[in-house]
Give the backbone structure.
Amino acid sequence: MAKQVAVLAVNPVNGLGLFQYLETFFEKGISYRVFAVSDSKTISTNSGIVLQADDVIASLKGQSDHYDALVFSCGDAVPVFQNNATKSFNLDLLTVIQEFAGKHKIMAGHCAAGLIFEMAGITEGKKLAVHPLAKPAIQKGIATDEVVMIDDHFYTAQCEHTLPNLMPELVKALQ
């Protein structure tokens, strides 16, 4: 039986990365819901395409038992995360990540996903593939130069262009 996946999409989200997850999950029959890391279900891609998520991140709090995996889809919102760190949706983001990790769910993502996981305090000793610009910020996890890294229940890719290398392994774990 296919597993349930909660996909987190920041606003704006990198469409190339998000659409790779969604298309692969759809083609493989893996059930998913997209949660906007925003106070609205309406978000956009880095290139301005408007999208309607299934729900907002606040609705995912306390719902980890309904999902087997959490996927963080990166985007242009991450470089300015620091400017918006105290907004309720970003606080909810960190809470949700901690909740899923605390229940040993599959934690997947690309680009700065490892950095966001680090900020949530869940990377202790875990090897991560991260965008080269995010690598210096990883202190408790182990930032690698690998384009893809799987360590225990962490599935990370360096960027959206390396996601095709990660997706087959993530799909195996989700089927």
The chain is about 25% helix and 25% strand. Residues 6 and 70 are 5 Å apart (CA to CA). Helices lie at 15-27, 88-102, 113-119, 163-174.
